[in-house]
């Protein structure tokens, strides 16, 4: 168990990583901006006539912040789902939230909507899936992990079928956009403020219960015997994780692997104390997505890759490396 | 601390575990719960721990029901050992035992050196000193059981509710565990109720016994009075013989 002091040290290091990843995202691109100019733009000390100002503040900053918020939300939702289901294989999408959002977003695209319309439809889809899974899993009042997991997996499979149906019915010229949405893409990210607010709120709501989550991860009955209000805590965790996922998916599509791999990466590095793990996965997930997105828009520029492909390409080898290292010790 | 049961009725599905059970467990007293597989021993113990509601009747810890106590206060008074040992995530033995300190910590507290000292002492009491940094999932079944018992000791409750505390333990640790809890009961005026499978252990270590016959009937009282060949034969559905052993303090029950 880490001491409070070690926890602060780890979080400080991760904060530096987050700052570095954001700085990289602002500086790197088709127009390279020196870090000094990035700093000047952020501090407002740069002349308005400078050519780099709109690139940094209007193009790259919103995209980098959206990426950070989505990465943080997905990693947090993944960590919470893994505790809630007591299953290391759980991720934010396992309970069908992204499937519902996918059905919503693709329906909006099929109807020819754009921007806010797609976001609105996908958020409604995510909420519908969340309430459907909750209602069905809760059916007989037991709300066991297995029942919740099975209900979520089946709803996700159903959503997957509807997504496939929409793809097969969609006109040719819309399919590219749909595929990008499904793989996860930050270029469509609109308003940044809501998703940042959701990130802060999700962390603020869950952190007071972090030690209780440690107990819940070890078993519901034992947690109850040690004084944890298990049914209430489970509902809270479910809704926070689901809303975090919905907010992230609405902003950037279903970006894969962050929600599964970041909690594991962080857990392998610093252990499974949720008091440290929850803030740490937010910082690590945010940083990883910002770096992946920076690569996605620069590596084969001017073509932009969907960021979900990059998160998997970075995350999978990093994960396998840590897993192999962990097995030896 | 005392445990008082009044007119307690417990059932699971269509199966009745007990009906109209009255029982008082005084501080320093040790109760053995005996019965066949599926008689409802674990269900009753979970009910006594406040983890599931009874069908009817009243359970009071030092005069107060679980509803009056609240979850946190109840967790400082009674400790419950379940049968499930399943950790999906990696954790050291020390971190596992430290979870027993949860009811004693405030929402924003982190475990203090005093809590770590209590956890280490609990591990030493269960013969696990030196294994603090081992990964819990690499322990043997018996070691894991003792780590669970150490977690319970670290909780420092006034009432222990132990569901098969001897599961997976070798004979040496079975006796050591029973001696530890009965000694604590006597010296610190703690009450203990445990599910056992050996009537000889019940007779030797416990002063009170509750027999669950599996058909909703029960029998309870002083161990020396309740435990006889006839009732144990009925309890297990297998004939047992009582053997007097002049050089032992207690008679021994042997299956035919």
CATH architecture of chain A: Orthogonal Bundle
Query: Could you name the CATH homologous superfamily of chain A?
Result: ABC transporter involved in vitamin B12 uptake, BtuC
How much helix is in the residues of chain B? Answer: 25-40%
What is the CATH topology assignment of chain A? ABC transporter involved in vitamin B12 uptake, BtuC
CATH architecture of the largest domain in chain B: 3-Layer(aba) Sandwich
Q: How many H/I helices of chain A?
A: 14
Number of domains of chain B: 2
**In terms of structural class, how would the helical and strand content of chain A be classed?**
mainly alpha
Oligomer: heterodimer
Q: What's the SSE pattern of chain B? A: EEEHEHHEHHHEHEHEEHHEE
- Give the DSSP E fraction of chain B (strand runs of 2 or more residues): 25-35%
Terminal CA distance of chain A reads 18 Å
pLDDT < 50 runs, ≥5 residues of chain B: none
Strand order of the largest sheet of chain B: 5-6-7-3-8-9
Mean pLDDT of chain B: 95
| Overall strand count of chain B | 11
Can you put this structure into words, describing what you see?
The complex is a heterodimer of chains A (329) and B (256). Chain A has 329 residues and is mostly helical. Chain A has a single domain, classed as ABC transporter involved in vitamin B12 uptake, BtuC. Chain A is built from 14 helices and no strands. In chain A, 51% of the residues are buried. Chain B is of the alpha/beta class and 256 residues long. Chain B has two domains: 3-62 and 158-255, 3-Layer(aba) Sandwich (Rossmann fold); 85-156, no CATH class. Chain B contains ten helices and eleven strands. Chain B has helices at residues 41-48, 66-69, 71-77, 93-98, 113-125, 141-155, 171-188, 199-205, 223-226, 229-236; strands spanning 3-12, 15-25, 30-35, 56-61, 78-81, 159-162, 191-195, 208-212, 218-222, 240-243, 252-255. Chain B has a six-stranded mixed beta sheet with strand order 5-6-7-3-8-9, with helices on both faces. In chain B, β6, α7 and β7 (191-195) form a beta-alpha-beta unit. In chain B, α5 crosses α6 (141-155). Chain B is globular. The N and C termini of chain B lie far apart (39 Å). Chain A binds chain B through residues 1, 3-4, 82, 86-88, 208, 211-212, 214-215, 217-219, 221-222, 224-229, 267, 271-273, 275, and chain B through 46, 49, 51, 71-72, 74-76, 78-80, 82, 84, 86-92, 94-96, 98-100, 102-103, 105, 107-108, 110-111, 155.
């Amino acid at each position: 168990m880490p001491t409070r002091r070690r926890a602060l040290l780890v979080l400080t290091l991760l904060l530096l990583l987050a700052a570095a990843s954001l700085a990289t995202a602002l500086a790197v691109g088709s127009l390279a901006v020196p870090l000094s100019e990035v700093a000047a733009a952020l501090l407002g000390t740069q002349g308005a006539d400078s050519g780099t100002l709109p690139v940094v503040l209007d193009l790259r900053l919103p995209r980098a912040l959206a990426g950070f918020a989505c990465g943080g939300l997905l990693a947090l939702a993944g960590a919470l789902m893994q505790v809630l289901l007591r299953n290391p294989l759980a991720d934010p999408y396992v309970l069908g939230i992204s499937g519902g959002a996918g059905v919503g977003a693709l329906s909006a695209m099929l109807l020819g909507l754009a921007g806010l319309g797609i976001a609105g439809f996908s958020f409604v889809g995510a909420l519908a899936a969340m309430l459907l899974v909750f209602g069905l899993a809760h059916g007989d009042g037991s709300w066991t992990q297995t029942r919740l997991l099975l209900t979520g997996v089946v709803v996700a499979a159903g959503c997957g079928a509807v997504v496939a149906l929409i793809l097969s019915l969609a006109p040719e010229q819309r399919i590219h956009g749909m595929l990008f949405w499904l793989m996860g893409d930050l270029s469509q990210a609109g308003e940044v403020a809501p998703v940042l607010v959701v990130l802060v709120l999700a962390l603020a709501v869950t952190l007071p219960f972090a030690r209780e989550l440690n107990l819940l991860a070890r078993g519901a009955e034992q947690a109850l015997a040690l004084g944890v209000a298990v049914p209430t805590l489970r509902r809270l965790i479910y809704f926070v994780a689901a809303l975090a996922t919905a907010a992230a998916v609405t902003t950037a599509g279903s970006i894969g692997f962050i929600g599964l791999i970041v909690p594991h990466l962080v857990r392998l590095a610093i252990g499974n104390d949720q008091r440290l793990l929850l803030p740490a996965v937010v910082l690590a997930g945010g940083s990883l997505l910002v770096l992946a997105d920076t690569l996605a828009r620069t590596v084969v520029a001017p073509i932009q890759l969907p960021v979900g492909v990059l998160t998997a390409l970075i995350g999978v080898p990093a994960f396998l490396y840590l897993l192999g290292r962990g097995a030896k010790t | 601390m005392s445990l008082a049961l009044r007119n307690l009725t417990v059932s699971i599905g269509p199966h009745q575990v007990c009906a109209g059970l009255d029982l008082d467990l005084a501080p320093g007293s040790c109760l053995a719960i005996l019965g066949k597989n599926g008689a409802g021993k674990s269900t009753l113990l979970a009910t006594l721990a406040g983890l599931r509601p009874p069908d009817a009747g009243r359970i009071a810890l030092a005069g107060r029901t679980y509803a009056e106590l609240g979850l946190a206060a109840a967790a400082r008074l009674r400790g419950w050992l379940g049968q499930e040992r399943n950790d999906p995530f990696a954790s050291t033995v020390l971190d596992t035992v430290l979870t027993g300190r949860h009811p004693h910590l405030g929402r924003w507290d982190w475990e203090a050196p005093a809590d770590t000292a209590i956890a280490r002492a609990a591990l030493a009491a269960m013969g696990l000193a030196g294994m603090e940094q081992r990964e819990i999932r690499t322990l043997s079944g018996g070691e894991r059981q003792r780590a669970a018992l150490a977690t319970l000791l670290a909780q420092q409750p006034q009432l222990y509710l132990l569901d098969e505390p001897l599961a997976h333990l070798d004979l040496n640790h079975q006796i050591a565990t029973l001696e530890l809890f009965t000694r604590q009961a006597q010296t610190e005026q703690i009450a203990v109720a445990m599910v056992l499978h050996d009537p000889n252990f019940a007779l030797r270590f416990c002063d009170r016994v509750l027999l669950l016959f599996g058909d909703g009937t029960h029998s309870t009282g002083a161990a020396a009075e309740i435990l006889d060949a006839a009732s144990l034969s009925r309890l297990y559905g297998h004939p047992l013989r009582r053997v007097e052993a002049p050089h032992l303090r207690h008679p021994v029950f042997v299956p035919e």
